[in-house]
Amino acid sequence: MAKTQGIDKQCPIEAGLNILSGKWKLKILWYLSKGTVRFNELQRLLGNITTKTLAAQLRELEEQGIVIRKVFPEVPPKVEYSLSELGKTLTPILSQLCDWGKRYHAYMEIYLD
């Protein structure tokens, strides 16, 4: 686990936030919720993320059982990422968060004009 506190000592909301926290993880999970993605494609989709940061975020998500990494034995190496069965359970949450974000934008447009 990337976090030092044991899972059994965390409150449930804290456990969820530890997995989803960070600038990139929600975006990574959003793209992976659409299907399997290769590393370079994911990096392009995310835009301004370094290779090192993306690799570290994916490694954490893999260690947490949220993401599956599949390496194909070819040259050059081909690596694909997808959500695990546990990771797929986040899809409705991500969709709800996206819907909320759309409502928030609409709300702010009304009150900022």
Automatic annotation (TrEMBL):
Describe the location of the HTH hxlR-type domain by residue ranges. 11-109
The record, for Gene3D superfamilies, names: Winged helix-like DNA-binding domain superfamily/Winged helix DNA-binding domain (1.10.10.10)
What GO molecular function annotation could you give as one example from this UniProt entry? DNA binding
* Superkingdom of origin organism: Bacteria
Entries under PROSITE patterns matching the protein: HTH_HXLR
Keywords assigned? DNA-binding, Transcription, Transcription regulation
What the entry lists under SUPFAM superfamilies is as follows:
Winged helix' DNA-binding domain (SSF46785)
Question: PANTHER family under this entry?
Answer: TRANSCRIPTIONAL REGULATOR, TRANSCRIPTIONAL REGULATOR, MARR FAMILY
Q: What is this protein's name?
A: Transcriptional regulator
UniProt organism field: Sporofaciens musculi
Q: What is the lineage of its organism?
A: Bacteria, Bacillati, Bacillota, Clostridia, Lachnospirales
